[in-house]
User: Fold these one by one.
Assistant:
Number 1:
Amino acid sequence: MPALERIAKLYRGDEMARKVVDAIHAVARRIAEREGRDSLVKIMDFCGTHEWTITHFGLRSLMPSNVELVAGPGCPVCITPAYYVDVAIRLAMDGVKVFTYGDAYRLPGSARRGAGIRTLAEAKARGGDVEVVYSMLDAVRRARESGKESVFLAVGFETTTPATASPVVQGKIPVNMTIINVHRLTPPIARYVFENVPGIPLRGVIAPGHVSTITGAKAWRFIPEEYGIPTVVAGFEPLDVLLAILEILKQIFEGKPRLVNEYTRTVTWDGNLGAQRLMAECCDVVEAAWRGIGFVPDSGLVFKDKYRRVDALKQYGIPELTPEEWSYDLPPGCRCADVTLGKAKPTDCPMFMRACTPANPYGPCMVSMEGTCSVWARFGGAGLAEEIARDIGLEP
Amino acid sequence: MCLGVPAQVVELKEGGRIAVVDFGGGVLREVDASFTPVKVGDYVVVHAGTIIATVDPEEAVESIRTWNEIISMLKAEDPGEPGGQGA
């Protein structure tokens, strides 16, 4: 596929990257000259894959001293409430076949270490029937083939939701299969961050590229319009992220916050209309729980009543989680919610790489490939990238 | 979890609801194409076994060209740059 290889080469190009990094430094310097010594530009990413790009490619080490890149709520596995994991574990132990994406397989529920079954992986080890699937399509096929009473634990943001909604709306979910719907929406959690997280205000947002393929870039218009924060929808190659940072700095310097789509090769203004229609047809938007954070208005999806047949909670008579019944659902000492909201770095957590490692995760942010703690643990967000950059003479 | 992997559509099945895509290196896979209209030969982004968007290779090149122009303009405006005019 020469065309795709050409794109990858183009967006990892050394020469262009140097040019963009130089431009970032030049604009950041002009901002610092104007604002003085305390000048700080905090830019948040809202996608685990952006955090992966930033950390894996060591982009933090290339930033000027007055530019800080902060990870925000970009990992749906990390924010899936313990309640629904517990429900899936219980069903698996009751003899129901449970399908899940690989990311959620080792996600802990509410049981403490050494006190009960914490994850679907542990449920499988104790004889529960749990199967990791690559896609909803595979879950539907495997449920049909096995003929067994089956449940799919459906987690994910807008990127993943249409895959769940499509077979539901098309009537293709087999009679022996139901779904635990824990899908969440990203613009409402961005709003929550702007309104509820104190500290140095955010001055730029790197909006999630793949969520935006579905929602369209337009979903993020409210950020510059209502909060005055420069916002750039970006792709996932290092150059995509560097260009987004440059555009944000340029807007700050010019004092003109607006929405820019950097990922034009994939994201349109209106998004994937077929996917949007499916989501609207399948689900109602509700106030929903985010792990360790609590209920966030208009941030969750539940099946419309006409699809109650596929709704696992309704079919098994399990009540939905309510704000009255929700209680703080992170394990003691875990700072995953603070990390998710950009209030803390993984290295601020005393458990990071001690009691909590990718091989033996304690909190949810260490589980998913896109959890900030997991990304930092694997690729050295804790300062390793800066060290290496200094060693090879790349220190800004 | 919103990881998207680029691929090329090599075959359509079931009236276009299922696509066989090539991830490169001989890795072929059937994916859900039920809500993203695609043709054989299209470049796409696949997420969790589902096509979520198409990729426009020409736009990828065009976009870099535009950014290059923006960077040149920034340089020309910067008083700290040799030859810069100041904003």
Note: Chain A is about 40% helix and 15% strand.
Number 2:
Amino acid sequence: MTAIGLTQVQARNGGFASDVSAISRRALRSVLRDPESVIPGFIIPLFFFTVNTGALQNFVEAGGTLDYKAFQLPVAIIMAVTGPLSRALTLVEDVRSGYFDRLVMTPVRRLALLIGMMVADIALVIALSVPVLILGYAVGVRFETGVAGVVAFVALAAYWGLGFAGFSYAIALKTASAAAVSSSFMVFLPMMFLTPMFIPLEAMTGWMATVAQYNPVTYLLGSLRSIITVGWEIDEILKGLLSVSVVVIVSMTMALLALKGRVSRQ
Amino acid sequence: MTDEHAVITNSLSRSFGAVRAVDAVNLSIPSGEIYGFLGPNGAGKTSLVRMLTTLLLPTGGSASVAGHDVVTEPAAVRLKIGAALQAAALDDKQTGRELLQLQSRLYGLTRPAIKQRINYLADLLNIDEALDLLIGTYSGGMKRKLDLAVAMIHEPQILFLDEPTTGLDPISRVELWDEVRRVNEDRGVTIFMTTQYLEEADYLAQRVGIINQGRIVAEGSPAELKRSVGSDMIVARIDGQTSGAAEACEQVDGVESVEVYANEITLSVDQGSKVIGPVAIALDQSGASVEDIVLRTSTLDDVFLHYTGARLEVDANIAKEEPA
Ligand SMILES: Nc1ncnc2c1ncn2[C@@H]1O[C@H](COP(=O)(O)OP(=O)(O)O)[C@@H](O)[C@H]1O
Ligand SMILES: [Mg+2]
């Protein structure tokens, strides 16, 4: 027994990649053991897609050439990848239970604590896109851009999902309050609905049209729709990429500042 | 390392606004010692441990742990210490083994080392059967043991335990005491533990520091501390006024000191069996109505009373065992 105990253990920092992989694997394990927390993420987008197309397809398509199912698929994917899926609530629990302190006491790179969670988010986001894509395929939506387009479509949506998750991480680290984190979804509602979600931007009027013009999700939707129905329309795609990047930069800065505050030993 | 000091602090202080949680604490703990930090709720124990474990910055003074300054070299300190902080900080959705593996990876342990360490600790702390169950299903005592194993996974030189047995039932408590002692004896790990329990400090610690309102009021081995307040104690509980009665006791030959706390008069005496008769008579003559009177040897609680003027009462009923 003592012989085993006499191994020379050399404690050191395990390296950034190893830290991130250890943290993200733990986060994914918790998801698998607590599937209820992600089931709404699978159902809500499918529900919206079915209801929106069912209710509005004939009405919107009546006047023109729009394929309303292709028009709604991006809405469904954005719903799938946004908000309630982030691991921010796990982070809140960790801070409250003291487990976060325990992690901080190891030589782990501080940034890996956040990036590890985000890697888990991305894995989850990709899993959540699958049913949406299958449903889209089943009802006849085809990508003008082919398989590469599907990949770009999911990647862009995941990029947005990550940007949005940054806000919940910032709130989680700043407040350590589950209620505050859940309320970050309140930010998502106007961002999602004050967009050309139901009808094209050109058809929108009044204050909603004005707000939609300044909403990054409008351009994300534009890119995603263009990837499906038009083809590789580079400037449409860039517009989406750039607007999402603005969100990502803001939210990641907030999350990093909150992380810094949380580990500051004050 | 063996001839060095594990922990040295110099006027270490921490304020939260106007509250001086830790007030100019000087410690010098040699390697291999079990040091017990005894004090009531709010005394500053957790704040001190958080400073020594690099989680909290001091607002004054300095501290060196395993030869490294906690403020300027936190990364070096972290490699040498392990800690089980107040209320087992674990993750209910992982198994014990998964948690230990995660922790090992963050310490950069190699695969064979991880396996060996987990086997060794499972054996040392008797947690074999629970390792592959979800932590959410563990009993309170089992959680504390796993907490200890997690703290030790990287073979630290110094272990910090913040109230390791608070909330445990008496049987699990004694079991954990034995594990802690074994860890100390087996590998010579220095242990810095805090507690509100007299028996715990008395049983485990080679040296005890008594902390009250952020200050160390007495320090020494349990035997030394008890001797410092006299070997025998007479405690009389009075129904009503204690003042006349306390003065009457002071006059009795052989009474060294008198402390009054609530309705109790505690006398530290030289030879209890000889003095208790005269004390009873003096009390009777003073007109006090005595509920009961006991003679016993001194405890750390008497030491606490002597230096702070208050009892360290901890309600034994707060120890709750979570269902298994
Ligand atoms: N983060 C904090 N902010 C403000 N006050 C604190 C904080 N942590 C501890 N205190 C105060 O410092 C004092 C000592 O607390 P603590 O170190 O937790 O004592 P103990 O662990 O002995 O119960 C208490 O008065 C407590 O209210
Ligand atoms: Mg405490």
Note: Chain A has one domain: 14-262.
